[in-house]
Amino acid sequence: MTTNRSIGNWFKSGTPWIWLNAAAVSASMIMVVGLLALIAVRGLAHFWPATVYEFDYLQPDGQQQRIIGEVHDSEIVTRGRIEASGVEVPGDALEVERLLVKTGNRDLVGLDFRWLLEPRVQDRDTPADIMVVERYEWGNFYGFLVSVKQEGRVVASGDAAWQALQERLARATELQHRIEDIEKGRIGDINYAMEKLRLERRRLELEGRDTPDNLAAIETRRERLQDDYEVLQQQLGELYGQLRRDSFLATVMDGREVEVPLAKVVRVYRPNAMGPVDKIGFYFAKLWEFVSDEPREANTEGGIFPAIFGTVIMVILMSVVVTPFGVIAAVYLREYAKQGPLTRTIRIAVNNLAGVPSIVYGVFGLGFFVYFLGGSIDDLFFPEAQPAPTFGTPGIFWASLTLALLTLPVVIVATEEGLSRIPSTIREGSLALGATKAETLWRTVLPMASPAMMTGLILAVARAAGEVAPLMLVGVVKLAPSLPVDGNPPFVHLERKFMHLGFHIYDVGFQSPNVEAARPLVYATALLLVVVIVVLNIAAIAIRNRLREQFKAYDQG
C-alpha cells in the first residue's frame, strides 16, 4: 500500500514526464546526428581516390576474364537468389558475397558497373600503373598508359609517357580555360549585346521612331560587334586546333588499345601509386571542384556552384520580400485592427495557410505571378520582345515571391508573438512622454520585438531553402545556361531560370541515366544543402542575439 502511494506521488510530482521529455529529446538528437553522420560519410567519401583493382574473374562459361575497376559496394546474397538467375555458384555456401565494381569505359562496354561473385574471383591485384581518367563525357576511363601522341605521332612511351602526359594535360587544361573564357565570357557578352540591339530596333519600329539615322546607328554598332565576334571565332578556331593536337594510347581490360584525345580529359591520376599526402591533396582538390565548378555529364560529375548560387540568391530575395510584408501584417493585426470576430477569423486563416501543401503555392505562383503579373509586365514594358516572354515565364523572381507567400504565415505568427510580449507599460510610457502611436511603434515596440521577427525569418529561411515542389513550376531547371547575376547590365537578371540544391538532389538521385554513379553525389549535395541552411540560419541567429542583447534592459523591465 505504501509502495503504491509513493509511486502515485512520484507520478503526481511530474518527474516521470520530465524524464520522458528528456528521453524524447535525446532520441531526436541521436537520430538527427546519426542522419547527418550517414550523409557526411556517404557523401564526403566519394571524393577520396579509391583503390583500383585488377581481378582475374572466372566466367560462368569457364573462361578467365580480366576486370579492372573500383569496388563501389558489396552485399551478401543467398545462394538460391543467384542460382535462380541462371548463374552457378562455386562451393556449397548458402550465402555468398558479391561486389559492385565500377568498371567505367562506358563508351566501350556500354555499362559503368557490374556485379562480381566473390567465389568466382580467382585473384586480385592493385598494380601501381593503373590509370584513372576523368572525362568530360562518358564517365571514367580505366586502363594502362602505352604512349603519348602529338598529331598522330608517338612522342613518348614507356616510363617517360606518364610525365609527358601530365605536361600535355596541363597545357590542354589551360587551353580549355581560354576557350571557356571566350565562349561563355566574351562571345556571351557579344550575343547579349546583339540581342539588345535587336530589341532596340524592334522598339523603335513599334514607337514609330525607326528613322534612317536611328537605324544606321544601330547597324553601325551591330557591325562593330560582328567584327569583334569574327575575331573571337578565329581565335577559337586556333585554340581548338591546338587542343586537338595531343592524345594518348591506353590498354583497357579486354586488351584493346584505345586512343583518347586530351581535349576530352579533365584529369588523369594513378590512385594505387599515391601516398597519403597525395591522396589528401587530391581529396581537397575534388572537394573544391565540387563546390566551385559547373556540373557536367548530366549533373553526375563536376561541381554544383550554380545550384549553390541560385539557392542563396533565391533565399535572400525571399527574405527581403517576406520580412516587411510579414511585419506589416502582424503590426496591423496586433496594434491597429479591432479585436473581434473578423480579426480572429483572419488569424485562423493565416495559421491554416501554414498547412497548405507547398505544391498549391507553386500552382498559384505559376498562374498569378508568372502568367498574370509577368504577362502584364511584358505587355507594358517589353512589347519589343513579344511573343517571346521576358517576365511572363518562370524565373528566380517569381520563385522568390512564391516562397515568400509560402513562408508569410510563419513570419506573421512569430512577429505577433513578439509584439504580444511587449509590456503595455512600455507603450503607455512612450505615449505619456508625448510620442504618437506611430512613433511608439517605430522607435520602441518594433525594436524590442525585432528578435521575434528574426525568429520568424529563421524559420522561413529553413523552410524555403529546402522546398522543391513549388520551384519546379516557377523557375528551377536542371541546368541553367547562365547565372542570375553577371557582368551584363542591369547585372541582376531576375527573369532568368536558376538551379537549386533541392531540385539538384531530386534530379541526380531519380532522373539520372546512371543512378549508381550519381548516388554519392546525392549524399554530398544533401550535406551541402544542410550546410547552406545552417550558415544562413547562423547569420540570422547572430543578428537576433545581437538585437536581444541590445534590448535586454527593456525585456527585464
Architecture overview:
By secondary structure, the chain is of the alpha+beta class. The chain has 3 domains: 52-126, SH3 type barrels (Roll), CATH 2.30.30; 143-286; 308-556, MetI-like fold. The chain is built from 17 helices and 13 strands. It has helices spanning 2-12, 15-44, 79-84, 106-109, 160-207, 212-243, 276-292, 305-336, 341-353, 358-381, 396-420, 424-432, 437-466, 471-474, 501-510, 515-550, 552-556, and strands spanning 52-58, 64-78, 95-102, 113-117, 121-125, 130-135, 141-150, 153-157, 246-251, 257-261, 265-269, 295-296, 301-302. A hairpin with a 2-residue loop joins strand 7 (141-150) and strand 8.
Short description:
This protein has helices at residues 2-12, 15-44, 79-84, 106-109, 160-207, 212-243, 276-292, 305-336, 341-353, 358-381, 396-420, 424-432, 437-466, 471-474, 501-510, 515-550, 552-556; strands at 52-58, 64-78, 95-102, 113-117, 121-125, 130-135, 141-150, 153-157, 246-251, 257-261, 265-269, 295-296, 301-302. With 557 residues, it is an alpha+beta fold. It has 3 domains: 52-126, SH3 type barrels, CATH 2.30.30; 143-286; 308-556, MetI-like (MetI-like fold, Orthogonal Bundle), CATH 1.10.3720.10.
Say which CATH homologous superfamily of the largest domain is assigned: MetI-like
Count of domain modules = 3
CA radius of gyration is: 31 Å
**Proportion of β residues?**
5-15%
Topology, number of strands: 13
The biggest sheet amounts to:
6 strands, antiparallel
Average pLDDT, rounded to a whole number, is 87
Element pattern in H and E: HHEEHEHEEEEEHHEEEHEEHHHHHHHHHH
